[in-house]
Amino acid sequence: MNAIELTFKEEILEGIPEVLPPKRAYDSSYNHAPKRKSILSVEETKLALKNALRYFDKKPYNSY
Prior knowledge:
Layout lengths: L7 H7 L27 H12 L11
């Protein structure tokens, strides 16, 4: 944990961190949501991703 404890509100106000944490391994001991069906066409998927990504800065993240 960080030396400074932040409240949930403070963490949200900080925004997306410059360095993302490492990706966690899939833990099969937890109950996960089922895989979703792919119901969008290729064009609809592109539009959905474009709409979702507009909320993020255009700087690249190379963590994953």
